Amino acid sequence: xxxxxxxxxxKMWQVCPYPDVLAxxxxxxxxxxxxxxxxxxxxxxxxxxxxxxTLVITRSGPDSYHLDRVMRVAHYFPVxxxxxxxxxxxxxxFDRCGDxxxxxxxxxxxxxxxxxxxxxxxxxxxxxxxxxYGTDVDRRTSFRGDLNPA
Length: 150
Known about the structure:
Blueprint: H1 7-10, H2 20-28, E1 38-47, E2 50-63, E3 66-78, H3 86-108, E4 110-111, E5 114-115, H4 136-140
Antiparallel strand pairs: 1-2, 2-3, 4-5
């Protein structure tokens, strides 16, 4: 086991062969294309200082917050530095499409007009992680049902 270090001014580097198999799958995939969705691989800067091969899935459709408006939104997924076979890349691509579907479902799922699982869009948050927000009483109740002090 090697201890991690921060060479090159604190940058992380990962290298592997270009994923030709993934590129071929992306070119042949037509997930929700009839709804205006598209996908592509791009070597890009995702955030300041964060760059690399990225799967971009662009969805086109109703704005989840203003259903009378149509909007296009790009979802960015760093491609792992892996030498997967076709089956593994296919599953990785399938799961990324599922992440976008989950994100949209989180925005659209409402009870009495209020989003129950709104995605965390802010910096440092994964907008694909379904967060369960509980009340203070939920947090303070023991497994026996007793309410603990704050």
